[in-house]
Amino acid sequence: MKIGIVCYPTFGGSGVVATELGIELSKKGYEIHFITYNQPVKLELLSNKVHYHEVMVPDYPLFHYQPYELALSTKVVDMVKKHQIELLHVHYAIPHAYAAYMAKNMLKYQGINIPVVTTLHGTDITLVGSHPSYKAAVEFSINKSDAVTAVSESLKKDTEELFSIDTNIEVIPNFINLEKYPLGRKEKNRSIIAKSDEKIICHISNFRKVKRIDDVINTFYKINKKIPSKLMMVGEGPEKENAERLCKKLKIKDSVYFFGNTNETINILSFSDLFLLTSSTESFGLAALEAMASSVPVISTNAGGLPEVNINGVSGYMSNVGDIDDMVSNSLKILSDNNVNNEFKENARKQSEKYDIHKIVPFYESIYITAMNKVDKQ
Length: 378
Ligand code: GMT
Hints:
By secondary structure, this protein is an alpha/beta fold. Helix content is 44%, strand content 16%. The radius of gyration is 21 Å and the shape is elongated.
């Protein structure tokens, strides 16, 4: 089958999931066509089974905003016709589900009937999608998709609460390619970051408000008073500068490293002892799953889909949003005893194995068949 995948090509979780899914499907014999404005950051290998088609938005002085949806839907139409793509899988509702609906109808007008599968990722629903400026368009394009999936039960519930949904939403959780997370730690890299008696704590995100970056820093500050430790902050985003300022104010800037965006997260996680995720909302928490696959226990909030991923008292602990003292006390429970830390590390890895790519991808394949059958009957 030939599948067109529309996604954001950035470091964000939705782009990563879309890319990994496309790569895995190509290994299973599908022909994959990524259609987006840049080559996805995690897409290293193009082949006869994996193609990338760039969406170009020509600049025109009249436009205050560039019409990306128009260029995207046009590119989708052109690529479907050129490569005989049989199904479109769009990740993140805004504006992809909307652009896919337009493309589907333009193609229908030309006698081509193509199914659209939409995967909801989180902020496209909880933060941006339900804003009055977008709500009607998002609701419409979800309802008009031939199949809809959400990455957690929590996101499905939020979608049904925030919108009038008249279609079934299938939950297909995010996944991890465990082959990329080999067991066995690289202690030699660890010594670049910390002394042998220091613990290494890690946070990875896009440094947006929703991640409550101050809570990460304040939690680390209190842990660091009790246990010699270092904090690695990985990612880029609007809250990064504030975070750097806060570290300076708290006089911990020598204990906190800011790495920016990197493709080295697996290496960084491989020598971490604890992962902090303090988000106020998180539909799934792919970064937490990546940490767990690297045998790193997770201290997180209990927001959104996190309780579906991080098992309290097993793979880590959960606290209410903003409850820094509880996050500190849970972190200390894990970090102050090496045996306990090791037990949590083992449990975290075991929990991540439930989300192995080979277990989850067949659910998408079965959704594709459902969507194809639906369109055959139209
Ligand atoms: O974390 C982000 O803000 C980025 C965002 C994205 O669209 O890439 O992440 C969302 O999708 C991920 C992949 O499904 C989920 O793991 C994240 O939990 C979700 N983020 C939020 O809900 C805040």
